[in-house]
Design goal:
Layout: H1 9-44, E1 46-49, E2 58-61, E3 64-65, H2 67-82, H3 89-97, H4 102-122, E4 124-136, E5 141-152, E6 155-171, E7 174-182
Antiparallel strand pairs: 1-2, 2-3, 4-5, 5-6, 6-7
Protein name: Type IV conjugative transfer system protein TraE
Organism: Geoalkalibacter halelectricus
InterPro entries: Pilus_assembly_TraE
Length: about 190
């Protein structure tokens, strides 16, 4: 880049240097503006989901989700984590672990693998009938209430009403489980 504005060569070099600094500052400001705009638009992007067998559509937008979507995910998590047999427990728990947030994965994996070992050793089956799901969007929590039946080799050994707390997080339109626990245990 040659700018012969001045008689002295050093003055021309200083002018070029100032011009290049200005260009770098303008490019940095433009990049910062684009980054901020893009970050804001990510929360405004929405995905409309129409699953089979569901009437209507569900909407996921940034860090928020439609109540129908949360209700459906609560039922799905309850079906995978609370209804199982010795033959299906390990596969269901592995599928459930794919929904866990990376920070919670290790603890959940240890808990579910220990449960799977116990279920296979004792030949215990569990059936959970979901009766009600209460949503608390501010705390990002679902309370899943239902009746849990326990069987050992086709003999019913227990029936109890239980409430489970599902702490979740929505990041970039993805549903993450933070923790699933029985309400009394909290």
């Amino acid at each position: 880049m040659k700018l012969p504005l001045f008689i002295q060569k050093s003055s021309n070099l200083f002018a070029e240097n100032r011009l290049l600094k200005l260009v770098v500052v303008v490019m940095g400001a433009a990049t910062l503006h684009n980054s901020c705009t893009l970050n804001g638009l990510l929360d405004e992007q929405r995905t409309i989901i129409v699953p089979p067998g569901f009437e209507g559509a569900m909407e996921v937008r940034g860090h928020r989700a439609d109540p129908a979507y949360l209700n459906q995910m609560g039922r799905y998590v309850a079906a995978l984590g609370l209804s199982h047999s010795p033959a299906t427990a390990r596969r269901q728990f592995e599928e459930l672990l794919t929904l866990y947030r990376p920070q919670s994965y290790a603890a959940a994996r240890a808990m579910f693998y220990e449960m799977a070992d116990t279920i296979e050793a004792t030949q215990t089956s569990s059936v959970f009938h979901t009766q009600r799901i209460v949503q608390d969007e501010n705390r990002r929590r679902l309370e899943i209430t239902g009746t849990r039946l326990l069987y050992v080799q086709d003999k019913k050994i227990a029936e109890a009403s239980s409430t489970y707390v599902l702490d979740y997080l929505m990041e970039g339109g993805r549903f993450w489980i933070v923790e699933l626990s029985e309400k009394d245990a909290k």
